[in-house]
Amino acid sequence: MQNSASLVVVLGTGGTIAGTAASSSDDRGYTAAQLSIAQLLATVPDGVGVPVEAEQVAQVDSKDMSHAIWQALALRVAHHLARTEVAGIVISHGTDTLEETAYFLQRVLAPVKPVVLTGAMRPATSAQADGPRNLRDAMLVARHASSVGLTGVLAVLNGVVHGAQQVRKAHPTRLDAFDSGEAGPLAAVDNGVLRYLAAPAPGPLPPVTAALHCAVADWPRVDIVVSHAGASGAVVRALCADGVVGLVVAATGNGTLHHEIEAALLTAQAQGVAVRCSSRRGDGRVAQPAAKGLLEASDLSPVKARIELMLGLMPPGAP
Ligand code: SIN
User: In the chain, where are the structural domains located?
Assistant: First the structure.
């Protein structure tokens, strides 16, 4: 799709990319979410030769990402995407929950224009900060992705472009911390040039726009439980007693569950709690039906399956 719009809007939400430490040699002892998005943009080498607009939507360490910030962010993204002069959006984000925000935005907005999340593994004060290059690459992708057929929510880190459904943080500290599992990345940014690596994904699922309008306090409560050696049904029973309406279980092996957790989940389901079976492994789709009587969460990771189930249970909001 040819795109004559050229403005890139960059939304700041915090993270290590906006973090600062006392010394430029300290890549670990820093505080996330200290610098504004305007300050970060000033560190990007040479800009990207396109007009850029910046807006601070939040300022958090992404381990503390909330549904309220997700809703505010989705509304700002929707607002800017509707502007004809906007080619795409960049979201500067902490890396710890970046994959969840990417999946949430894809499912709520299913955008046609590119929405590109990026972050950094080193703080802005590091002598080897990766944030400026990541921001630059993300802006380039936001400007040019549509013209090469890349649309929707993407993540760009360390020169690699991932899709929202596949992207995951796979390493706690390395610069190449992100991957797309068996699916592989969609594209790469090599010295300022965007190169395709994979065929475009099939069309996106229709967006679940209720999350834009439904009061966050009314979002259905969905939690994650893990099946493991020595598991019991106690956590499932406690969550049900506490009012959870949906549960995702991270299953072992080829979709198997400890018999005690399985029994507790079947009881919860019989009592009206929606249950989905995901996998605690990183790669590979479960090749057999989920534990008897439970529905599979497709090939989504537990954190993304939680978002999918929560959106599926959301009361339809105002249009
Ligand atoms: C965060 O997720 O906000 C902190 C960690 C990071 O961005 O790498």
Answer: 7-196, 220-313
> Which CATH number applies to 7-196?
3.40.50.1170
State residue 35's pLDDT score.
98
pLDDT of residue 23: 95
User: Do 7-196 and 220-313 show the same overall fold?
Assistant: yes
Query: Is 256 among the catalytic positions?
Result: no
Give the CATH architecture of domain 220-313.
3-Layer(aba) Sandwich (3.40)
| Beta strand spans in the chain (E) | 7-14, 20-21, 30-31, 52-60, 86-92, 115-118, 153-157, 160-163, 168-169, 178-179, 187-190, 193-196, 222-226, 246-251, 274-279, 295-296
Report the pLDDT value the prediction gives residue 2, as an integer from 0 to 100.
44
Residue 175 CA to ligand 1 center (angstroms) comes to 12
**How many angstroms separate the alpha carbon of residue 94 from the centre of ligand 1?**
4
Helix (H, G, I), strand (E, B) or coil at 319: coil
- Position 210 scores a pLDDT of 95
- pLDDT for res 24: 96
61 CA → ligand 1 middle, Å? 6
Question: Ligand 1: residues within 6 Å at CB?
Answer: 14-16, 32, 61-63, 94-96, 119, 121
For the chain, which ranges sit under pLDDT 50? 1-2, 318-319
